[in-house]
Amino acid sequence: MRITSTSCICPVLVCLCFVQRCYGTAHHSSIKVTRNQTKHTEGETEVHHRPKRGWVWNQFFVLEEHMGPDPQYVGKLHSNSDKGDGSVKYILTGEGAGTIFIIDDTTGDIHSTKSLDREQKTHYVLHAQAIDRRTNKPLEPESEFIIKVQDINDNAPKFTDGPYIVTVPEMSDMGTSVLQVTATDADDPTYGNSARVVYSILQGQPYFSVDPKTGVIRTALHNMDREAREHYSVVIQAKDMAGQVGGLSGSTTVNITLTDVNDNPPRFPQKHYQLYVPESAQVGSAVGKIKANDADTGSNADMTYSITNGDGIGVFSISTDKDTREGILSLKKPLNYEKKKSYTLNIEGANTHLDFRFSHLGPFKDATMLKVIVGDVDEPPLFSMPSYVMEVYENAKIGTIVGTVLAQDPDSANSLVRYFINHSTEEERFFNIDANTGTIKTSKVLDREETPWYNITVTASENDNPDLLSHVSVGIRVLDVNDNPPELAREYDIVVCENSKPGQVIHTITATDKDDFANGPRFHFFLDERLPMNPNFTLKDNEAAAAPSPSGFVHAREMGACGPAMQKPSCPPLV
Question: For residue 186, how many other CB atoms are within 10 A of its CB?
Answer without folding.
Answer: 17
